[in-house]
């Protein structure tokens, strides 16, 4: 199938101006100022992108595709995600994770769900493990999982500074990082450790100690939930200036949205003003994960569910409400996660890359059309492809 996107204004995510883009199957074939179709050539799908921005498909690097939760008992286990929960948010690549529950949610389940979503049309990868240490793997080894299982690109989400963690030592995390790093080197994968940051007082202490006392580079870690509280956010600025990657969670409860002073869109503006490299900042949704609420004594009092659609909502807010430039805002969900996670064919609009493309309305900045691996999933706001059980 050939698909021609005509007359759109391209952010790749850097600005390219008005271009025509020819998608050849699952790859971007040509990008030209104008691509003309011969009059007698009929086997081509033409999408009019006039008055649209054309951007790379979004990468969500932290999604509980099997569901998450359980902090309030078995009835609070959130359901598995559906395809359109993802594509309606412009996301064409997801990284699946396990969270608090590494018992009833298993690595076999996670990989099977990832393969199912890929059969339905999007690109998927996963992390091995969950909150718990020692890491529960498929093969019995972190290094072997990363090297031998194509879907596994790193470790996560390992919980630190959180009352729900396994309370690992610095040495525990050090050994996990070392094994993941070698696994990544030998398989040309990222081998990163996705760290769940809780709201405890230790914050980033473990990661900073490892970087200062070993040969493991700061780029081996991708700590998330960095806007969880103001103290952690302030600490993240210093950490990122040292070269560390920092990830901000876009899903939140309505109460958090009202009170949080580290909303990702706002945080992005502050980070850029503080001189943090725009290449070191990512957003992820925590989609389909539970959003547990605890009282001051750590008792469970309520639950929400994370939404993948929140990912682009925060990018849009950064542009419209905070005045962040479109290219820098888009980097947080396109080129940055692609580079950090070594997803070589993702995150850019460039000839030879995977044909993951999103069209955005220029006036409203709402998502208009979503194309994943050359297949139109959403067209002019309407769902074209549904998941198997939708």
TrEMBL record:
Free-text comment on the cofactor: Binds 2 Zn(2+) ions per subunit.
List of residues binding substrate: 69-71, 100, 131, 164, 228, 290
Post-translational note: Carboxylation allows a single lysine to coordinate two zinc ions.
Species: Keratinibaculum paraultunense
Protein name (record): Isoaspartyl dipeptidase
Function: Catalyzes the hydrolytic cleavage of a subset of L-isoaspartyl (L-beta-aspartyl) dipeptides. Used to degrade proteins damaged by L-isoaspartyl residues formation.
Listed EC numbers: 3.4.19.-
Domain Amidohydrolase-related stretches: 53-376
InterPro entries, alphabetized: Amidohydro-rel, Metal-dep_hydrolase_composite, Metal_Hydrolase, Metallo-dep_Hydrolases_sf, Pept_M38_dipep
Entries under Gene3D superfamilies matching the protein: Metal-dependent hydrolases (3.20.20.140), Urease, subunit C, domain 1 (2.30.40.10)
Stated family: Belongs to the peptidase M38 family.
One Pfam family, short name: Amidohydro_1
GO biological process: proteolysis
């Amino acid at each position: 199938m050939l698909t021609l996107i005509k007359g759109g204004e391209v952010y790749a995510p850097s600005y390219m101006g008005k271009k025509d883009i020819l998608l050849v199957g699952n790859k971007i074939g040509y990008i030209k100022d104008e691509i003309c179709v011969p009059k007698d050539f009929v086997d081509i799908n033409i999408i009019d992108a006039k008055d649209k921005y054309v951007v790379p498909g979004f990468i969500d690097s932290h999604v509980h595709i099997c569901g998450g939760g359980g902090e309030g008992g078995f009835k609070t286990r959130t359901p598995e995600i559906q395809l359109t929960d993802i594509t309606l948010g412009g996301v064409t690549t997801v990284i699946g994770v396990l969270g608090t529950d590494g018992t009833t949610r298993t690595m076999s389940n996670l990989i099977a769900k990832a393969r199912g979503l890929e059969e339905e049309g999007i690109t998927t990868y996963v992390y091995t493990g969950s909150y718990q240490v020692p890491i529960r793997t498929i093969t019995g080894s972190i290094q072997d999982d990363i090297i031998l299982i194509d879907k596994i690109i790193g470790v996560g989400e390992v919980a630190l500074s959180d009352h729900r963690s396994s309370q690992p030592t610095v040495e525990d995390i050090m050994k996990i990082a070392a094994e993941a790093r070698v696994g990544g080197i030998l398989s040309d994968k990222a081998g990163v450790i996705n760290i769940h940051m809780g709201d405890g007082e230790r914050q980033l202490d473990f990661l900073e100690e490892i970087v200062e006392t070993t040969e493991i580079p700061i780029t081996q870690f991708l700590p998330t939930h960095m806007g969880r509280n103001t103290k952690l956010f302030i600490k993240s600025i210093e950490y990122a200036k040292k070269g560390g990657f920092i990830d901000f969670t876009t899903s939140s409860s309505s109460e958090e949205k009202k009170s949080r002073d580290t909303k990702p869109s706002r945080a992005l503006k502050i980070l850029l003003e503080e001189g943090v490299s725009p290449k070191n900042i990512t957003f992820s949704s925590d989609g389909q994960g539970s959003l547990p609420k605890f009282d001051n004594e750590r008792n469970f009092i309520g639950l929400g569910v994370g939404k993948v659609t929140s990912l682009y909502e925060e990018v849009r807010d950064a542009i419209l409400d905070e005045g962040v430039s479109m290219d820098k805002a888009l980097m947080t969900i396109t080129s940055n996660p692609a580079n950090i996670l070594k997803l070589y064919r993702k995150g850019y609009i460039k000839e030879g890359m995977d044909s993951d493309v999103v069209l955005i309305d220029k006036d409203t900045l709402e998502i208009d059309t979503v194309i994943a691996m050359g297949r139109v999933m959403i067209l002019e706001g309407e769902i074209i492809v549904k998941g198997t059980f939708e």
